[in-house]
Design brief:
It holds the Pfam family Phage_integrase. This protein is mainly α. It contains six helices and two strands.
């Protein structure tokens, strides 16, 4: 599947800022040496990534557990909100059924201020 042009740019900026653009045999995402911010050649493990995401979500005030389905639902919902078609979202998510893809569609979960204002107080 092709990548979004912004992702290409972000990865180019990241590799340039980290000075790792020419290191093709080393991992792209790496651990740091302590809290120094200095990158090692050790790969960032999946468990490290999840801890980092959850730590940052908590710092942002998000108390809901975040997992891979959170990202999948966010991506599918954003795609559909921007005029995407369910059939294409199904292909991108590699789902056999559009019904499965529909489970990740969170558009109906959002309640607009206009709807709330319908309540007569």
């Amino acid at each position: 599947m092709p990548t979004h042009h912004n992702l290409d740019r972000y990865l180019e900026e990241y590799t340039a800022a980290a000075s790792i653009g020419e290191e093709r045999k080393e991992p792209m995402f790496r651990t740091t040496r302590g809290r120094s911010g200095e990158l090692t050649t050790n790969p960032l493990l999946q468990s490290d990534v999840w801890r980092m995401i959850r730590r940052r979500a908590l710092a942002a005030g998000i108390k809901t557990q975040i997992g891979r389905h959170t990202f999948r639902a966010t991506g599918i919902t954003a795609y559909l909100k921007n005029g995407g078609r369910l059939e294409i979202a199904q292909q991108m998510a590699a789902h056999e059924s559009a019904r499965t893809t529909g489970l990740y569609d969170r558009r109906s979960v959002e309640i607009s201020l206009d709807e709330v204002e319908r309540i007569g107080i």
